[in-house]
TrEMBL record, chain A:
Gene3D superfamilies reported for this sequence: Calcium-transporting ATPase, cytoplasmic domain N, Calcium-transporting ATPase, cytoplasmic transduction domain A, HAD superfamily/HAD-like
Main subcellular localisation: membrane
Domain P-type ATPase A: 116-216
InterPro entries, alphabetized: ATPase_P-typ_cyto_dom_N (IPR023299), ATPase_P-typ_P_site (IPR018303), ATPase_P-typ_TM_dom_sf (IPR023298), ATPase_P-typ_transduc_dom_A_sf (IPR008250), ATPase_P-type_domA (IPR059000), Cation_Transport_ATPase_IB (IPR051014), HAD-like_sf (IPR036412), HAD_sf (IPR023214)
Name of the protein in question: Cd(2+)-exporting ATPase
An example Gene Ontology molecular-function term: P-type cadmium transporter activity
From TrEMBL, chain B:
Residues annotated as domain HMA: 2-67
Top-level taxonomy: Bacteria, Bacillati, Bacillota, Bacilli, Bacillales
InterPro entries: HMA_dom, HMA_dom_sf
Transmembrane segments: none
Protein name in UniProt: Copper chaperone CopZ
Highest taxon of the lineage: Bacteria
Organism this protein belongs to: Phocicoccus pinnipedialis
GO molecular function list: metal ion binding
Length: 632, 73
């Protein structure tokens, strides 16, 4: 019965509409009896599906809007208001139809994301290619991916090379080249080339499945406002029935009582907020800005303080050697070669940076070193040709009684003031050189910060474990209000906790080592999907791409979504109040009340649809100049 | 535990959620039902006592055409 009604809903709606038109013709021609019969038939056709829904909802003990309409229409028939009965039930169906069509539009971007989920994979079995369901792929399977098709699961390239479009994951439409040993992600598409991959993450663990899971959960998690409105509607609907009965007993006017029933329907009130959130979340997901639901949007929109991690967030996180200062007559390259050889023992990223530089310059660093040791938080030591090398920070030098001359110290401090991280090289207790390493500021960092400020962020803070001078330099270039350097992870937590006492905070990190800070902050935002698992779980907002500017985009969009949610709620409340007065003063009757009610629903949906087109591009170019490749 | 995901026609009324939940939970072997209104998807965790087809049939009987079914063990 229900299925039949749902399948033929549109036909019934059209039929009742046509009948109403015919009825109106008879009305003008003066055939009162035929007119009445036509309207009664129109009402019966249209009320069918409404009654079925009202009944179904009652079965699960919920009072639906359909119930209010059913009561009103039946009562209207009883008091022989056939025209009104027909028009009200038709308008309700037509309104529901438009509602469905527009609602589908608002969740379109999310739907299309869900539909992009890979379904099939081509597996290599004994050299033969077999099509299998993506759910049947197992870890270690060798799969073939051809041009134009999607990578079905996450994997490592074992053969071939290709230009990949990773927009499904990162939201950025730049192609990336992938070859042997590179990681590829499910949902990305080969533009040209050919790949054989070995599956590493399958099913729900693959990157694309995680995105989908996250987006789905986001759309079903309710914000405080939504929860309140749902609760409200639960009590509101039955109390409207009670009130309209009261109206009848007081006025003895059935027409007034049922008009009251119809206009008090909480339609726009119930749909106004969710529709705004869904449209906003959908827009964000197109840019691969994953926001975990309406509650987060509310929080995000009210952020006053934005806290950035430095390394890997404001900077590339890929330091490089900028200068090698030889203080003796040893050649620069020779020095680098020996330092890199000793650094082989280091697990620190600065050590790796030095090795990379040596390899890049084509130096052979495989020279014999004895007694290689890594000294925690200080540096490394090792012996080459009976000469003892110490490479590391100032502390390493003083603790080993290596004298630092004033000239060297001055050079060291000057380099630091440029934002460099500087390491000493000592050979048999004499300083023979310095190595400066730096991390490039992301090209869109300045634009992001300016844009955030433009959108009403009051305070921008940078927290880092790095040295004071490096932090100061970055802070100066980017125009940051406040920075704290040489922090331990718990210092960051303390800072956030303290700041939250006065301001709503947004913590932005790369999600690899700042998960606790992301979790502590009112809103935690992780950039990049490299730190996938922890970041995606603890952060409230995940940027799948690398673009820092999307932090500001997410903020602006959340603000806009929040505003539209408030507007919608206001429109809904205002409509109810206006209708109420209209009815009391006799301006509004059953059919016109229904029309205005349905119109208010359409207004809130259309208002929310503005969020789908929301784009910040113009704002950015107007207000903020991009600064390319600024160096620290 | 088997996980089945049904994609239905666009759901329009919030009371649909309750109806589908109650309807599916009454089947022996169904553990959890999660109806996502905004994307019109129903996720069901259930034992092998129930087949995906039975679940689909029940949802259709409740009045919601099912567009696709996906099962993972």
């Amino acid at each position: 019965m229900t299925l039949f009604m749902n399948k033929h809903l549109n036909k019934m709606m059209v039929a009742s509409g046509i009948l109403i038109v015919i009825g109106l013709l008879f009305l003008f021609l003066g055939f009162t009896n035929i007119r009445n019969i036509t309207f009664i038939v129109a009402t019966i056709v249209a009320i069918g599906p409404i009654l079925v829904r009202a009944f179904n909802a009652l079965m699960v003990k919920s009072f639906s809007i359909e119930l209010l309409i059913s009561i009103a229409v039946i009562a209207a028939l009883l008091i022989q208001e056939y025209t009104e009965a027909a028009v009200v039930s038709f308008l309700f169906l037509f309104g529901a139809y438009l509602e469905k069509r527009t609602l589908e539009k608002t969740s379109q971007s999310i739907q299309s994301l869900l539909e992009m989920e890979p379904m099939v994979a081509y597996k290599l079995i004994n050299g033969e290619e077999v099509e299998i369901d993506v759910d049947d792929v197992e870890i270690g399977d060798h799969l073939i991916v051809r041009p134009g098709s999607q990578v079905p699961v996450d994997g490592i390239v074992v053969n071939g090379s290709a230009q990949m479009n990773e927009a499904a994951i990162t939201g950025e439409s730049v192609t990336r080249h992938k070859m042997k040993d590179d990681e590829v992600f499910s949902g990305t598409i080969i533009e040209n080339g050919y790949l054989e991959i070995e599956a590493t993450k399958i099913g729900a663990d693959s990157t694309f499945s995680k995105i989908i899971e996250l987006v789905e959960d986001a759309t079903s998690s309710k914000s405080k406002t939504e929860k309140f409105l749902n609760k409200f509607a639960q009590y509101y609907t039955p109390s409207v029935v009670v009130l309209s009965i009261l109206v009848y007993f007081i006025t003895k006017n059935v027409h007034l009582a049922i008009t009251f029933l119809v206009i008090a329907c909480p339609g726009a009130l119930i749909i106004g907020a969710p529709v705004a959130y869904v449209a906003g979340l959908g827009n964000a997901s197109k840019k691969s800005v994953l926001i975990k639901g309406g509650a987060i949007i509310d929080q995000f929109a009210k952020v006053k303080t934005v806290i950035f991690d430095k390394t890997g967030t404001l900077t590339e996180g890929k330091p490089s050697v900028t200068r090698i200062h030889s203080l003796t007559d040893i050649k620069e390259e020779q020095l680098l070669k020996e330092v890199a050889a000793v650094e082989r023992v280091s697990e620190h990223h600065l050590g790796r940076t030095i090795i990379e530089e040596a390899v890049k310059r084509g130096l052979d660093i495989n020279i014999p070193v004895v007694d290689m040791t890594a000294i925690k938080a200080r540096g490394v030591s090792g012996v080459i040709d009976d000469m003892k090398y110490l490479i590391g920070n100032e502390r390493l030098m003083t603790e080993n009684n290596v004298p630092i001359t004033n000239d060297t110290l001055e050079l060291y401090e000057n380099e630091q003031k440029l934002g460099q991280t500087v390491m000493f090289i000592s050979k048999d207790s004499e300083i023979v050189g310095l190595i400066s390493i730096m991390d490039k500021i992301k090209s869109d960092a300045k634009a992001t910060i300016d844009y955030l400020r433009n959108q009403g962020v009051e305070k921008i803070v940078m927290l880092t474990g790095d040295n004071y001078f490096a932090a100061e330099k970055v802070s100066e270039i980017l125009g940051i209000d406040e920075f704290h350097a040489e922090l331990l992870p718990e210092d960051k937590l303390n800072y956030i906790e303290n700041e939250q006492k006065t301001n709503r905070t947004l913590m932005v990190g790369d999600g690899i080592n700042d998960a606790p800070a992301l979790a502590m902050s009112n809103v935690g935002l992780a950039i990049g999907h490299k730190g996938t698992d922890i970041a995606m779980e603890t952060a409230d907002v995940v940027l799948m791409g690398e673009r820092l500017r999307n932090v500001a985009y997410g903020f602006a969009l959340s603000k806009q979504t929040f505003n539209i949610m408030i507007q919608n709620t206001a429109v809904a409340l205002l409509t109810v109040v206006l209708l109420l007065f209209g009815v009391i003063y006799g301006y509004i009757h059953l059919a016109s009340g229904m029309l205005i009610h349905e119109l208010s629903i359409l207004v809130v949906i259309l208002n929310a649809m503005r969020l789908m087109r929301y784009n910040d591009r113009e704002n950015v170019h107007k207000n903020v100049e991009f600064k390319e490749d600024s160096f620290v | 535990m088997i996980r089945t995901q049904l994609t239905t026609d666009t759901l329009t009324c919030p009371s649909c959620i309750k109806k589908i939940e109650t309807g599916l939970k009454s089947i022996e072997g169904v553990d959890t039902v999660d109806v996502n209104f905004n994307v019109s998807r129903v996720k069901i965790n259930h034992s092998d006592q129930v087949t995906a087809d039975e679940l689909k049939e029940r949802v259709e009987k409740l009045g919601y055409p099912v567009k696709s079914v996906r099962t993972t063990a």
